[in-house]
User: Fold this.
Amino acid sequence: MQNRTTTQSFGVSKREGHDSSSFYGRKLYSATVRGKESETINQAPTHVLDRIFAHSSENMSELPDNSVALMVTSPPYNVGKDYDLDLTLEEYLNLLERILKETQRVLLPGGRIAFNVANVGRKPYIPLNSLVAEMASRLGLLMRGEIIWVKGKGASGSCAWGSWMSAGNPTLRDLHEYILIFCKGRFDRTQKGKSTIGRDEFMRATTSVWDIAPESARRVGHPAPFPVALVERLVHLYTFEGDVVLDPFMGSGSSAIAAKKLGRHFVGYEINPEYIEISFDRLNQVTPQIVPQDRQSVA
Ligand SMILES: C[S@@+](CC[C@H](N)C(=O)[O-])C[C@H]1O[C@@H](n2cnc3c(N)ncnc32)[C@H](O)[C@@H]1O
Assistant:
């Protein structure tokens, strides 16, 4: 039998069958807060599957506890887009916290969250990635990593460099956003299922820097759509076929499209009915057979 590697001062060349218990036994990990572990698994009722509910995701009472495999979302950033309210930082974080708590309720044991967020402003810079990571950890969600989503050099035509070629007041222009990964209660899923990710995509998806071009807001008709390819990678990596993917800020339906393309179900929440219409129009183009005929959403 091959000897297991262990954590050592100078690292190890291979980490197959790696025994990391001495690393996780260190005091560094003694204060980690874990959410309440539960082995209960519930099925989301079929009548809520592949639906977008037209109300705030602060209340997701259509979904039972412990029923969702992956929450993938991009929240409003509270920066003045069409759909943004003008909230103080405290009010904004409270909104995100209410939705994270509700998400925590509906996630399966070992269910995952992929939370897209950008840092905002420059005077000073507001590190939403840190604030959300701290909030989720305080709620007992377990952080698994942080993906740097590089949107490409062309993504920022921004001239907001501060003082041009001068040390007077130069400012950084972000070419990236973050996708924060958390899970509920435990690291692995309690049930097994069929994974759909291929070798090359698995190798790409398990690195922490993803180069994926942004989607055109004009083309989609929404101010901040996800590229479907980004959600597809998350769905492939973190869910089994037939799982439920939740987007509490569904916008133009990109998460729904990715879920259906890959043989998963979606459940969404979106407060703007026009965006729900856009979602179903887009879904209809990609997978006409699954769009509910009545396009019904619940107010
Ligand atoms: C950044 S956009 C999401 C874009 C989406 N990822 C896509 O691909 O189109 C955030 C969306 O959340 C919606 N929204 C804002 N507050 C909400 C709430 N409390 N509950 C549900 N949706 C909300 C906004 O109308 C907006 O469409």
